[in-house]
Amino acid sequence: MALSRDLSAPPVIIEAAINGARTMADNPNVPLAAQEIVDCITACVEAGASVIHMHAGQPIVGAGGHHDSAMYRDVFMPALQRHPGLLIYPTLPGGGPGTTMQQRLSHVRGLAEMGLAGPVPVDPGTMNLGRIGRRGRPPANSHVYQTTFADVDWAFRFCNQAGLPCTLSAFEPGFVRLVEAHRRAGTLPAAAIVKLEFGADEVLFGLKPGLRGLEAWLDLFDGDALAWMVSLRDGDVNDLLAGLAIERGGHVRVGIEDYRGPAMPRNEELVAATVRIARGLGRRPALPDEVRGLITVNFRCSQERKE
């Protein structure tokens, strides 16, 4: 299906997070093998996605802080041959004591040297990482997901030196406040998008999905100067949150990685559902070659508000 280029309204960037740590037991439609992933990327682009996020080889965020770029090369290369200009990015390996941002982004550096790098993933903050258990028990682990101020500063300098865009997951409010501080200081990468993270009943980060949660996020930064999208890690973003974001000029992340619900959807079905919501609200899905322009950071725009 060919997607039209209608310039009457700002288009919506739809990111498809196609696998993550999901297994066939979670959803038999999750793409895990290289060819499955390439075919899924094509289906998602044809449905309306313009950014792809994927895990390859190591489905769970690595504890050692390092991933091999070869795992991603084997997917990125054929996918980009099919879809030149598509933005595809890998996972960010876990951070913690003994890891460095240089290690964690070594696979991205390798992809950049091959001409295959898309957005650089940066989670700009540190948090306790966990989920509510099946019987309602809170986690009792000692897992701290760490990205220090120095890590963020290094990552932003890497993006600027390499001329690469940046995708930022704001799991907690302080994360996006740091991003906004870098924007004001002029040190944020020239092209960037922040993902506002929401959690319903399972994950223990982000804000509750709904209007109040979204408004709370948007009060922390200048949404006219920095592109943003919503992400729901334990539900269906298309139930409510996607529409709220699209109405307010935002963008949307969907996909099997994040979806939790009774259905077993395919990634392209989740993308198509977001497209229907966007078109119903007068916006069309962005084309891959439009994304960089849509995420260009405005460093001159001020967030000063009148009391």
Which value, in Å, is the CA radius of gyration? Answer: 18 Å
Order of helices and strands: EHEHEHHEEEHEHEHEHEHH
Number of domains: 1
Spatial order of strands in the largest sheet: 3-2-1-10-9-8-7-4
Which whole number gives the mean pLDDT?
A: 91
The residue fraction in helices comes out at 25-40%
Indicate the CATH architecture.
Alpha-Beta Barrel
CATH topology: TIM Barrel
Number of extended strands: 10
Protein name: 3-keto-5-aminohexanoate cleavage protein
Cofactor: Zn(2+)
InterPro entries: Aldolase_TIM (IPR013785), BKACE (IPR008567)
Pfam families: BKACE
What does this structure look like?
With 307 residues, the chain is of the alpha/beta class. It has a single domain, classed as Aldolase class I (TIM Barrel). It has ten helices and ten strands. Strands 3-2-1-10-9-8-7-4 form an eight-stranded parallel beta sheet. A two-stranded antiparallel ribbon has the order 5-6. Helix 1 packs across helix 2, helix 1 (34-47) runs parallel beside helix 9 and helix 2 (69-82) packs across helix 4. The longest helix has 14 residues, at 34-47. The chain is globular. The protein starts with 13 loop residues before the first strand and ends in a 13-residue tail after the last helix. Mean pLDDT is 91; it is low at 59-63 and 303-307. Keywords: Metal-binding, Transferase, Zinc. This is 3-keto-5-aminohexanoate cleavage protein. It holds the Pfam family BKACE. One of its GO terms (molecular function) is 3-keto-5-aminohexanoate cleavage activity. InterPro entries: Aldolase_TIM, BKACE.
